[in-house]
Every structure is written in C-alpha cells, then in structure tokens.
Amino acid sequence: MRPLLTVILVTSSTLLMQAAIVRGQDSANSLKTMLASSTALKPEGGNPAPRPGVTVSTGATPPELIHIAKLTCASKQPRMTARALTFVVKLVVDESGRPTQMHVDETVDRATDQEVLDTIGQFRYKPGKLNGKEVAYPATVIYRIAPGAVY
After folding, report:
1. CB neighbours (10 Å) of residue 29?
2. What is the pTM for the complete model shown?
3. Which residues of the chain does CATH 3.30.2420.10 include?
4. Tally of CB atoms within 10 A around 27
5. Distance between CA atoms of residues 86 and 109, nearest Å
6. pLDDT band at residue 52 using 50, 70 and 90 as cut-offs
7. What is the four-CA torsion angle of 132, 135, 138, 141, rounded to 10 degrees?
8. Is 33 exposed, middle or buried (0-12, 13-18, 19+ CB in 10 A)?
C-alpha cells in the first residue's frame, strides 16, 4: 500500500511541477501554492464538511430474552395437541423490555392464538439499544407447541 501511495504522490508532484515549469513559474513556490489551493484538501472544494449535530451510529443491539412464561389454557379443560403447532408472532420490544404490538402472522385458531399472545406478553427482554440508548425494537418470535403437549 505504501509503495503505491508513494508512486501516486510522486507522480502528482511531478506533474504539478511540470505544469508550473511549462507556464514559466518557479517550481517550488508553484507546487506549494497548488497544493495549498488543491480542491482535494478543502471541504468547499467538493468534499462534504462534517455537519454539526450529525451523529455516527455505534450500532444496534437486539433485545435479549431473559424470562420465558409457560403456556396455560384459559378454558377449564386442558387440551392436548395431536400435531406440532407453530406460531409466528411479530412484536415490538419496548424500552422497558416488554413485548407490545403483538400479532400472530401464521394463525392456528383464535383461542389458541390468544393464549399464545397472552403467554408471549409475559416474556421479558433486556431492551434493544441504538448508540447505547434503550429503544423500541421490532422482533419476531417463533413459538412451537410439541405434539402431545397438554396445555
């Protein structure tokens, strides 16, 4: 990398000096003047200057699950599943680590969907962060009920 950079700088300097000599100017003074007024070195020459108030992101950290609740049946009679059930739940983990704005993407039936939403509503997360500050963070939870499970 350094040899390439050196070749570029020497070539640029040589071309600037040759241009100055062709115009009949002193090459050393001309080179200093051209380098000092180079548009590549000044923000107003096309390179954007840093704007005040603009922050650079240090990255986002997703929420971390810290508490899981057990699925319970709201009706008086427990049920047993004959096949595996999979629920895809979209939600937002708020700044306090609680799931909000939950909805089931792939529904099974209304009663079971609501029971799963109630259970996921009891989950707790370590909140997601952006630039070190806790923020609401969208998430997807895939909740599975094994075949033969009683709930």
Report:
1. 10
2. 0.58
3. 60-145
4. 14
5. 11
6. low
7. 80
8. middle
Rounded to whole angstroms, the Cα distance separating 148 from 98 reads 30
Q: Which amino acid is at 38?
A: S
The pair of three-digit structure tokens given for residue 24, joined into one six-digit string: 């009949």
Q: What CATH number belongs to 60-145? A: 3.30.2420.10
Query: What is the tally of helices (H) and strands (E) in the chain?
Result: 3, 8
Q: To which residue do tokens 């090459």 refer?
A: 27
The pair of three-digit structure tokens given for residue 115, joined into one six-digit string? 């029971």
pLDDT at 101: 97
Could you give the CA distance from residue 47 to residue 100 in angstroms, rounded to a whole number?
A: 44
Q: Is the per-residue pLDDT at 38 higher than 70?
A: no
pLDDT, tens digit (0-9, with 9 covering 90-100), for 53-112: 666 667 889 999 999 998 877 766 777 888 899 999 999 999 999 999 999 987 888 888
The single residue listed with the structure tokens 């009683």 is 150
